[in-house]
Amino acid sequence: MSAPAIVLSAPAGFEAALAATAAGCEEEGVPSIAIEGTGTAAERAREAARASGLGIGVGIGPEGACIALAAWAGTYLAGGLAETRLIGQNAARIAVRRPLPL
Amino acid sequence: MIVAGCDIGNSTTEVAVARIVPGRAPEWLGVWRRPTSGRKGTAASSAGVVMLLDLAERRIGAPIDQIVRAELRPVDSELRELGRVERIDLARNAVARPASDTPSGLGAAAGTLRRVADLAGEPQRGSVLAIVCDEEFHDAASRLVSARERGWTIAGVIVRGDDAVLIGNRFDRAIPIVDEVADAGELPLGAHAALEVAEAGERVERLADPLALAELLELPLNEARAARAAARAVAGRRAALVVRAERAPVEPIDAVAELEIEWADGSRTRFDETAEVPFPGAIAGIGERARLRDAFWTSLPASSEQTAFQRVLVERRLTALALLADHPDDPVGTTLGARSFEPICSESSAALLGAATTPRAGTTPIVLDLGGGTVDLHRAGMTEGRAVACAGAGELVTRICAGVLGVGTEAAERAKRSSSARVETPFVLLHEDGTRSFRAEPAPPETLARLCTQRGETLEPIATHLSPESWGRLRREAKRSVIGVNVRRALAATGGAEPGELVTLVGGSACDREIVAIVDDALRDLDLAVARGNVLGAHGPRAAVAVGLVLAFAGAR
Q1: pTM surpassing 0.80?
Q2: How many whole angstroms separate alpha carbon B423 and alpha carbon B441?
Q3: Is the distance from CB of B453 to CB of B459 less than 8 angstroms?
Q4: CB A100 to CB B449 under 8 A?
Q5: Tens digits of per-residue pLDDT, B248-261?
Q6: A47 CA to chain B: closest CA distance, Å?
Q7: Distance set, CA B533 to CA B378, B421, B507 (Å)
Q8: Which ipTM was obtained for this model?
Q9: pLDDT digits (tens, 9 = 90+) for B177-215
Q10: CA distance B186 to chain A (A)
């Protein structure tokens, strides 16, 4: 069974964005784990959401960061690479059902 | 001949236009409406009528020959602050600062305020509360770890950004850390301060108790009681910070804003917002407002899940007040530009005639016009109709909703008219009756975990922490306390009603889907048939007076 965590996916070279996203989740008290993954930010987000026990995935790529929900085919929320801390926070708030800082 | 009936309301101006041929039923050409421009009865409000008449003429392609209107009396709806208003002057001996709801650690701590950077030097005796401003969280945590290793006693941390948990996880998970303290950089360094973090779902305990707070802040004995303002300001929060201010305590200033009532018999008494509202006509003036026909007041409904904001409302003794002015005539006069603009019959006769065009109504012996400013009751009489106008209707309900929610008038208007739901997850809505529904498409991110108004599939967030159930109850209570009470007052002032009699609701506020039930409940013991009007079988409860004016004109010819 997959862990109750938000799953993050970023290609090599995006370690800082990945760490900032994880920090955003941590500040909200929600665990996150990173997987390898492939594809665009949106594709990584979808793959991550399916792997997440919470059904929430974040994909990172040169085009920015995306939040995907396992139950829905589209991208739920997207932001630039400068906003990955906020994206992590938003993803965590979806999990804990608190209003998003957006 | 083409005749236009004009009804200038406090909120809405309506025009009904018909071709009238003697001996035949009027041929209705249309009904138009727009928000009233300016105060009812002023020249500004007549500009709106002119715009509607121009629009009507363009649509029907013919000039309007005759304009008829009813009397105009403006109503002012407002929220008034009354009585002993304790000024929450936090700059007395303790200053409360709001902090976010995602703190780290647990418990209360007190100490001297010091910047993290200042902890690099020789350790000093006594507890400190460390302030983190621009430091990145890894950096802030390592500085704190190092300071503690070198002998500093760090009792708590204050963070400007949203980093409390991140810093706590890397420094000390147990000590209280509050974050999102916007003015952390301006806190008086060296001053004594106290902070507290409660468990999730709990509220600060020691900071909310004046004596415990005074002890934490080491306030002198004679100042302990004065800590109550700061204690009150942080009560109800999960995390809070209070800073001791080095200045002499000033006793709270009681701002007195009492009002005086001038009664119709010339006597004067002090205004008491808890007293029952008298019959229309009993009050001649309130405070600086003289020449009144009616005054209405009610207090704001209180919720069981009171937020800090709502507690402030109760402390402020906010009273909703509607005042109906008694201006026998008005500056609109009898002309509108080049057009003659004549009062033709009483508004009552017009409302009764207009409401009677509702299918299956037959005659309408009692018509309640629930408008923006007033609740008007019109009764069919032997010859001329009888009427009573009660101050306080839709606009006052909007004001109360705005006060309860702490939002502007526009958002309050929307919240007043729509049902609400909280978006629990992107796919699940929690409704006012406690039921849940599923959405095929996820709700927009900005609506998530918020109370939203619902119109079809469209959700719009309302800035409040109230649950759908509580807000629904408060909204209905606001309507009951204004419309329900005023309907009762109007009926009592005109001699009651026989069981089974038809009460027809017209006016903009009658469009509200909750209003029939609220009026029916208010009149329940009288067993009346309360129904919404449907003017000309097409316009719902709107335009009853405008249509009735045209009918009265046609009938007189």
Answers
A1: yes
A2: 12
A3: yes
A4: yes
A5: 444 444 444 578 88
A6: 18
A7: 14, 29, 9
A8: 0.92
A9: 999 998 899 899 999 999 999 999 889 999 999 999 999
A10: 24
